[in-house]
Amino acid sequence: MDSDMRTLVITGASRGIGAHLARRAVEQGFRVVGLARNTSQEISAYELRRCDVADAQAVQKSLEDLRRDDSLYGLINTAGIASMNLAVMTPPETIQRIIFTNLIGTINCSSIVGKWLTKQKRGRIVNFSTIAVPLGLKGESVYVASKAGVEGFTRSFAREMADFNITVNAVAPGPIETNLIAKVPPEKIAAIVERQIIQRMAEPEDVWKVVSMLLEPDARMITGQIINIGGV
């Protein structure tokens, strides 16, 4: 392998924001190893491995070949699910699925990949939250709870990894045209956008611009931050 090659693990890489970030990372010279529960898509630009991030053993097994890979550089945790509903109307199994995918999945991947990165004493971890957290959106309390957990984990994990020259940050986009909001009524999306500082929907490329900045070696002094895309 090229000694200058840097490997990124990207979860949720089969579609939406994760797929966009994976493609853009490849264009920037990264080797991308994507994780997704659904790997039926035909993707040639990067490697896609079937894995449920909520299952720590599955994550470990899926990425075992990277344990001693000197090219391993970072992790982007985009895998996430949502169920827009009042908490009292949300089935217990749905609540567990959201928490396990969004929060436990982020912790699983971060702790496993992070442990391997500490041996190299350098790296980048970027987690994903949502502006629904600071906005406290009605009908999204379970989703917000899972992502608020991601934000708390990001801040504390950043302190744990700082001595190893590994930065840990999170980006929190507003509504973006992906499958995640496909069933949300347009008027509700419009109401959310109106509460942003920049009152327009972001695009996946807007997210990439922030993530790519955080991945840069020169971003070594940025850690423990939650960057709200669109502003709140």
Annotation keywords:
seven-stranded parallel sheet, globular, 232 residues, Rossmann fold
Structural account:
This protein is of the alpha/beta class and 232 residues long. It has one domain: Rossmann fold, CATH 3.40.50. 40% of the residues lie in helices and 18% in strands. The chain has helices at residues 16-27, 56-62, 92-118, 132-135, 141-161, 186-194, 204-215; strands at residues 6-11, 30-36, 47-50, 72-77, 123-128, 166-173, 226-229. It has a seven-stranded parallel sheet, with helices on both faces. Helix 3 (92-118) links the parallel strand 4 and strand 5. Helix 1 (16-27) crosses helix 7 (204-215). The radius of gyration is 17 Å and the shape is globular.
CATH homology superfamily name: NAD(P)-binding Rossmann-like Domain
Order of helices and strands: EHEEHEHEHHEHHE
Overall pLDDT score = 94
**Beta strand count:** 7
In short:
The chain is an alpha/beta fold. The protein has seven helices and seven strands, in the order E-H-E-E-H-E-H-E-H-H-E-H-H-E.
Topology:
Elements: E1 6-11, H1 16-27, E2 30-36, E3 47-50, H2 56-62, E4 72-77, H3 92-118, E5 123-128, H4 132-135, H5 141-161, E6 166-173, H6 186-194, H7 204-215, E7 226-229
Parallel strand pairs: 1-2, 1-4, 2-3, 4-5, 5-6, 6-7
